[in-house]
Design a protein that fits this description.
The complex is a heterodimer of chains A (383) and B (374). Chain A is an alpha/beta fold. Chain A has 12 helices and 14 strands. Chain A folds into 2 domains: 27-160 and 291-352, Rossmann fold, CATH 3.40.50; 163-285 and 365-377, Rossmann fold, CATH 3.40.50. In chain A, 42% of the residues lie in helices and 16% in strands. In chain A, the strands form 3 sheets. Chain A has a 7-stranded mixed β-sheet with strand order 7-6-8-9-10-13-14, with helices on both faces. In chain A, strands 2-1-3-4-5 form a 5-stranded parallel β-sheet, with helices on both faces. A two-stranded antiparallel sheet of chain A has the order 11-12. Chain B is mainly alpha-helical. Chain B has a single domain, classed as ABC transporter involved in vitamin B12 uptake, BtuC (Orthogonal Bundle), CATH 1.10.3470. Chain B contains 14 helices and 4 strands. Chain B has helices at residues 5-8, 10-38, 45-63, 79-109, 118-136, 140-163, 170-191, 220-242, 244-254, 256-261, 266-292, 299-314, 319-340, 345-359; strands spanning 199-200, 209-213, 216-219, 294-295. Chain B has a two-stranded antiparallel ribbon. Chain B has a two-stranded antiparallel sheet with strand order 2-3. The longest helix of chain B has 31 residues, at 79-109. The model of chain B has no long low-confidence stretch (mean pLDDT 90). Classes of the chains: A alpha/beta (383), B mainly alpha (374). The interface between A and B is large, with 36 and 39 residues.
């Protein structure tokens, strides 16, 4: 009963805000391009980053945050009358820590859009809260396929999900002619989900090798199992810190199978943790190579004095969608959510346009490898 | 049974399991020693191990200047130089952990026993001042200055409390232990150079296969770990059984009051006990970084839980029990990984612990540091 009252109240609020937007005048009919004129006005609006800035996979969140920072800085410079703030919620990628932060984000009325949550596990834990509050999200990195099937009206993602990435990985492994591939995961929402897709896709070629504890340090039992099975390829679904430890111990243990990873491993942290054992690993990712958009690359380098890393460009696209909404005069959660439904614009990574489930139209999967201690794109493999 | 994996890879799993188990054993000794003497579970011991891994990291990276990688691969050492390096890193880790354990005892436990000293009071006062200052200012340097100013008056307050000489209840020690554990780990996470990230320690020896044993490849680092841990344990047992201080440790473990009456300096012995546990944890930390080449602010947590389990499994308070418990736990975990998959190894390890405790409530070898058997 209490809930229905809340529902009614929020429905009323949303209705009112829609009326307000409709009455807002002619700016609602303007197109979706960012306000180049710079005559947008707004007051105290914030876009939030939600994800890991510290912890085992903190580098990925740092990349995302930089993408958001760049988009917002460019917007603020072009629109002196509308200075959009950034709020960062550092969940450490931990589904247990995320809900309290999500409550904070929901309670802060000035937060009108969220770039994140970055990872799939935390997304499962908190997206329901955002949905209830009608707070729109665009995740630049959470790829678990289930996320799009929860009926969350606020959910969007700026890259292809694992139902596209998994088959892409399978295609790559099969194209490499691997006949016996060990499949390992880290028991996370993301890692286990992706590993299951890859294992199913590989069929008879897959050797199930179960899960490892990403917090643990000793993977010798898995190394032994890999040696025993005589695999010529290994796929690990998980994040870069555990992947680094695993790669190192596999190499030390005398396993010389080709290693395959996915987007969660595409980070220099993997190379730092694995050392020379990282060389030659193949890392698939639905994220665009850093040089896929020259303007973005140049702007990013100018601001941060480094190349954009995994998900930075996707985060830039996600933040830009929110900023375009603000520029179009949609300055509360409900009208921004409406705006995203019909959003259709060429982002720096792909055409950004969402279907009713929040999946982005483009679904290219890219292959990367490690050469002399650096991540190198391998264009043309897939994508 | 997964395809007879355990059967085919039994000796491989045994060697790596023994290596990991040796590290568990060394850390378990710290739990067992302190429990034997004080009847206290020193939950902050896992952080003493963590401090040791950073000691090893500093020794190899700062003092010895070993780079992570050189052109053409790792900067391997060989022969006599390797030995010198290993011993130096070991000593550094031991000093870090040993001093850490001693400081922990003076600050977190001694004052609770009703005879706190100036050192403990000053450290506690500084920390108190720091926390108080943090409420008002959000700047580390300012906090340090305020804390330093506040230290003197707060110290006097603590000293007057200490002079009352009241022994705190058991539970207070436990809470102090858990608090100290969190505080040390979080301090490392907040002020450490890499914050909450993982650290890599450089590699100093080539991890070649030394020999094959019944189809299992035995690597150099595994041998160093197992042999090193055994040597340290023999040294500890000799110290406890043969030396004057060791006799004091056994006396206090048997009956602290009587030992005091007979002229044993009980506080001194407790300090020695903590130092011994710390030194063993430092040894474990050095061996750990040798094999796994990593550390983090919370590296001690899982390892600490496992080592405490090992101590209970073997019989807490019993030195040989810690050795046996650690090795058994390492082996069981590895075998369970092979039979049921990696995600089940902790489940199996704790089921084994439960079953053992059901039939032998005091662990495999029984509970005794001072009593009859040592």
């Amino acid at each position: 009963m209490k809930k229905s009252r809340v529902l009614r109240a929020s429905a009323l609020l949303i209705g009112l805000s829609l009326v307000g937007v409709a009455c807002g005048g002619d700016d609602t009919s303007s197109d979706t391009t960012a306000a180049a004129g710079g005559d947008v006005t707004c007051d105290g609006l914030k876009i939030a980053f939600f994800g890991a800035l510290t912890g085992d996979a903190g580098n990925l969140g740092q990349n995302i945050k930089k993408g958001v920072d760049l988009a917002v800085a460019e917007f603020n410079e072009a629109n002196p009358g509308c200075q959009v703030g950034i709020e960062a919620y550092d969940s450490q990628g931990d589904p247990a820590q995320a809900p309290a932060l999500a409550d904070k984000a929901v309670a802060d009325a000035s937060v009108v859009g969220i770039v994140g949550p970055a990872f799939s596990g935390e997304s499962k834990a908190v997206n329901g809260k955002f949905d209830e509050a009608g707070l729109p999200i665009v995740t630049p990195s959470a790829t678990n396929p289930d996320l799009a099937n929860q009926g969350w009206k606020i959910f969007h993602r700026a890259l292809a999900g694992d139902d596209k990435q998994g088959p892409g990985i399978v295609q790559k492994i099969t194209a490499d002619g691997k006949a016996k591939v060990g499949v390992i995961d880290d028991n996370s929402e993301y890692g286990k989900g992706l590993a299951d897709i890859v294992q199913a896709g590989l069929g008879a070629a897959a050797v199930e090798m179960n899960s490892l504890d990403p917090e643990g340090s000793d993977y010798s039992a898995i190394v032994t199992a890999a040696k025993d099975a005589g695999v010529d390829g290994i796929f690990f679904g998980g994040y870069y810190a555990a992947a680094g430890k695993l790669a190192k111990q596999l190499k030390d243990g005398g396993v010389d199978a080709q290693l395959y990873f996915a987007d969660g491993v595409l980070d220099v942290g993997f190379i730092e943790a694995a050392g020379p054992a990282a060389e030659g690993s193949i890392i698939m990712c639905p994220c665009a190579p850093k040089d896929s958009n020259a303007d973005f690359l140049a702007a990013f380098k100018a601001k941060f004095n480094e190349d954009p890393a995994t998900y930075a460009a996707e985060a830039y696209d996600a933040a830009t969608a929110f900023l375009d909404a603000i520029a179009a005069g949609k300055q509360d959660r409900a009208s921004i959510l409406e705006f995203l439904k019909t959003y259709d614009k060429a982002g720096v990574t792909k055409q950004i346009k969402w279907d009713e489930k929040g999946e982005v139209a483009g679904n290219a999967i890219y292959a990367y490898t490690i050469e002399s201690g650096a991540i190198v794109g391998k264009p043309g493999l897939i994508g | 049974m997964r395809d007879w994996l355990l059967y085919r890879t039994f000796w491989d799993l045994t060697i790596t399991g023994l290596a990991l188990g040796s590290i568990y054993s060394l850390v378990a000794l710290g739990y067992t020693l302190v429990y034997g003497v004080l009847r206290l579970i020193n939950f902050a011991h896992s952080e003493i191990f963590m401090v040791g891994t950073f000691g090893a990291l500093m020794a190899s990276q700062e003092f010895l200047g070993i780079p992570m990688l050189e052109d053409g691969g790792y900067p391997y050492r060989t022969g006599f130089m390797l030995l010198v390096f290993l011993v130096f890193i070991l000593l550094c880790a031991m000093v870090f952990s040993g001093l850490g354990a001693v400081a922990l005892e003076r600050v977190a436990y001694k004052s609770l026993r009703g005879n706190g000293d100036l050192f403990g009071a000053v450290v506690l006062a500084f920390l108190t001042g720091f926390v108080v200052s943090m409420v008002f200012v959000d700047d580390t340097l300012a906090n340090v200055i305020v804390a330093a100013i506040l230290t003197a008056p707060i110290t006097m307050g603590y000293m007057s409390l200490f002079r009352r000489g009241k022994q705190s209840p058991r539970l207070a020690f436990l809470i102090s232990a858990i608090g100290a554990s969190t505080a040390i780990a979080e301090a490392m996470a907040i002020w450490g150079p890499e914050k909450r990230e993982q650290y890599q320690t450089p590699r100093i020896l080539e991890k070649d296969v030394l020999f094959s044993f019944l189809g299992a490849d035995v690597r150099v680092d595994n041998v160093i770990v197992i042999v090193g841990a055994l040597l340290m344990m023999v040294a500890l047992t000799l110290f406890v059984n043969k030396s004057r201080l060791g006799r004091g440790v056994r006396a206090v473990a048997q009956d602290a009051e009587t030992a005091r009456i007979l002229g044993v300096n009980v506080d001194m012995i407790i300090l020695v006990t903590f130092a011994l546990g710390g030194v063993m944890a430092g040894g474990a930390a050095m061996l750990f970084t040798l094999v796994y080449e990593q550390s983090r602010f919370n590296i001690g947590f899982i390892l600490g839980v496992k080592s405490f389990t090992a101590a209970v499994l073997g019989g807490i308070g019993n030195l040989k029990g810690a050795l046996l418990g650690g090795l058994v736990l390492g082996l069981v975990e590895n075998y369970a990984s092979a039979v049921f998959g990696g995600q089940w190894k902790d489940v199996v390890a704790f089921v084994v612990l439960l079953v053992v405790l059901m039939f032998r409530p005091t662990g495999l070898l029984g509970e005794s540091l001072g009593r009859a058997r040592v």
